[in-house]
What does this fold into?
Amino acid sequence: MSRARVANAVSSAARATWGAATRERRRPNLFDLASTLEGRGIGRAFVKRSWTARPETHGNTFWRLTRVRTRPSGRSGEAYGVLTWKGREREGEERITGSMKPIWARAREYEGRGEDDASGPVLKRPQSVDVMSGEE
It folds into this structure.
């Protein structure tokens, strides 16, 4: 095998390994985060990481997701929501800009605890544990 072919084979193997490693560490975009939640994240709050880094200037700022239109891949599309900027909610639904960028995080502190909250079931202690704790 010639040196050029060996170098090419090594570099393509290195690219494949590097690509796999970077995919594992890739930060999620808004669509990735929303797809992991029930109802594709509708009604949930999301923040840009730069907002959480500066709470003194961007405190109480987040997007509440109202509508998502994804492309067949599920990693891109259009997202719409209501922006709450420094505690004041804007009127009407707006398209969320930068939704494809890997700068998003869930804003659990701004998610309500209403009936339609899909945060999961409320877990109770098993009956046998409750009985045992009453005897001690």
Residues 27-114 form one domain.
